C-alpha cells in the first residue's frame, strides 16, 4: 500500500507513555524479555537525550522525504516520528528546519533508519534525534509513501501509537496494548536494581548479590591457589 495517511491513531495513556522515560531503554528491553530493541546502528546524534513518546510511523522512498512533511500534520504533542526508508540510503532526511517544525507541534524526537544532517543545530536547539548515519546528502520530494501504517524499522515492527523509548543506549519499542503491563514490570526491576545497588555500594560481591555461586559449582568451576 502506498500513499496512505491514517489520521487520529490510538495512543497509549499519556501518563503511561511519559513514565517510560524514567526506566530508560535497557530496563524496558529487559522488562519485555529482551524484545523490541532497534538495531545497534540506531544511535543518538548527540548524547544526553532521554525521551518516551507515541510513535507516528512513516514509510518513505529512498532519498525522498515528501512523506515526512505529510506526517508533521498528523503529529500531536508527546509523539515521536519514526521513519523507515524502503531501501538502504545515505540521504539526510531531517535537518534543522524540519526539526523546528516538529518541535513546534510538541514532537519529542525523531528516529530513522537512515541519515540526518545539521547535527550542530539539532544539538543547539535540543531536539533529540536517533539515526543510523549522518549525511548532508539532500533528498527530493517526489514520491509517496505511507503515514501511520505498520512499518519495520531497524529490525523491529512498529505500529502507529506504540510507545517508543530512546536514550544514549538506543531505541526500544513497546506495543501499545502491552504498555501498562511492561511499565509495571519496569518498576519492579527498578526497585530490585535499587536494592542491589545498595548492596554493591556496601562492598558485597556480585557473585553473592545475584546468587551465582551454586550455578558455578554445578558447572564445575575450580579455584586454584
Summarize the structure.
By secondary structure, the protein is α/β, with parallel strands linked by helices.
Q: Which key phrases capture this entry?
A:
elongated; nine-stranded mixed beta sheet; 225 residues; two-stranded antiparallel ribbon; alpha/beta; Glucose Oxidase, domain 1; 11 strands; 2 domains; 24% strand
Description:
This protein folds into two domains: 14-177, 3-Layer(bba) Sandwich (Glucose Oxidase, domain 1), CATH 3.50.30.40; 184-219, no CATH class. It is 32% helix and 24% strand. With 225 residues, the chain is of the alpha/beta class. The radius of gyration is 20 Å and the shape is elongated. It contains eight helices and eleven strands. The strands form two sheets. Strands 1, 2, 3, 4, 5, 6, 7, 10 and 11 form a nine-stranded mixed β-sheet that branches. A two-stranded antiparallel ribbon has the order 8-9.
Tally of distinct domains = 2
> What gap, in angstroms, lies between the N and C termini?
67 Å
SSE pattern, N- to C-terminal: HHEEHEEHEHEEEEEEHHH
Helix fraction, binned, reads 25-40%
Query: Gyration radius, to the nearest Å?
Result: 20 Å
Shape: elongated
* Total E-strand runs: 11
Average pLDDT number: 97
- The CATH architecture designation of the largest domain is 3-Layer(bba) Sandwich
Counted by DSSP, the helix tally is 8
Share in β-strands: 15-25%
Structural class computed from helices and strand pairing: alpha/beta
What's the story with the biggest beta sheet?
9 strands, mixed
| Level-1 CATH class name of the largest domain | Alpha Beta
The CATH topology assignment of the largest domain is: Glucose Oxidase, domain 1
Name the poorly predicted regions: none
User: CATH superfamily of the largest domain, please?
Assistant: Ribonuclease E inhibitor RraA/RraA-like
